[in-house]
Specification:
Blueprint: E1 4-8, H1 19-25, E2 30-33, H2 50-63, E3 69-74, H3 76-87, E4 92-98, H4 107-120, H5 126-133, H6 142-153, H7 156-167, E5 182-187, H8 195-204, E6 209-213, H9 220-223, H10 225-235, H11 241-249, H12 251-259, H13 266-280, H14 288-302, H15 305-317, H16 322-335, H17 338-354
Parallel strand pairs: 1-2, 1-3, 3-4, 4-5, 5-6
Helix pairs in contact: 1-10, 2-3, 4-7, 5-6, 11-12, 11-13, 14-15, 14-16, 15-17, 16-17
This protein binds ligand LWBT4IAB.
Residues 10-12, 75-76, 104, 129, 132, 166, 192, 218 line the site of the ligand O=C(O)CC1=CCC(=O)O1.
Domain Carboxymuconolactone decarboxylase-like: 267-349
GO biological process, one term: beta-ketoadipate pathway
Protein name: 3-oxoadipate enol-lactonase
Amino acid sequence: MSDVCILGPSLGTSQAVWDPQAAELGRHFRVIRFDLPGHGDSEATPVSSMAGLAGRVLALADSLGAERFHYAGISLGGAIGAWLAVHHPDRIESLAMLCSAARFGEPEAWRERAALVRAEGTAPLVAAALGRWFTAEGARTPEARRMAADLAAADPEGYAACCDALAGYDLRADLPRITAPTLIIAGRDDPVTPPAAARELADGIPGAALTEIARAAHLANLERPGPVLAALRGHLPAPDGMTVRRAVLGDEHVDRAIANTTAFTADFQDFITRYAWGEIWTRPGLDRRTRSCITLTALVAGGHLEELAMHVRAALRNGLTPDEIKEVLLQTAVYCGVPAANAAFAVAQRTLGRT
Ligand SMILES: O=C(O)CC1=CCC(=O)O1
């Protein structure tokens, strides 16, 4: 089973804040997102301490059977992760804190915000929040409109309780206790948790890495999805070749290949696992469906019919339908020649007939 990676949102947003990264991370991890109490789809039961918010994450991990998990969180979501890394180091495999801090300004400001929201709801916060969350350019995007809608829809008591949790949060003295491999990401134009707050985290957490994202405010992962995803990918463990080989070719095939390995072929088996599967099939730049289309075409071009049968099965596993495989082979008839495609159709037909 894949490693679990839990993604925590920021105050006033919902789990949709992770939309730009979740699917890509989901290719290698079992990605689980959650909503803060009273936000998004979550029940409105208010939780007013960081320990309480962190307890919900642990309960979620328990429900998934995840003894240990990777955790990445934005702002308040990041603070929940840091709190867990301090108080439950045995549960946190790795930690990423995006646009977050060891302390979020003066507690009094959070108590005032909580009181305002309890009296008038979250609507009065929306305009100012967009100015903190996005650069002027970013505030005009559909993502900004989506986040504004999430904030306006948040339950006032749930939101206010999160403000109380922020008022009581100060992890500065505890940062050296964090042992999980940690990545800190800062938006260079973030007025809420500016790069200085990120440096305080990175200086305090042993071995932490720090990445600053240019042209991004507080919701840096929405404004600059690519650089944030790249930073997260560099931080999270890459899947090893054997894991990908098994995912694409299936356990039965790989177990047979391993069982048939001899002293003569062992180095070659090791080479393809590390090189083809560990170096190329794991690359993020193309999805596995596309890689299957390319591989089928290359095998037809080279006349590698035995390998083609294996990759027809792999293509199905990677999500291609028989009709799509047919389309790939039709296209090879144009570029590789009709006789090559003819032989490939015969192999594919036999293979598909057996699956
Ligand atoms: O509310 C804001 O604008 C920024 C913020 C602080 C903590 C959090 O999660 O978001």
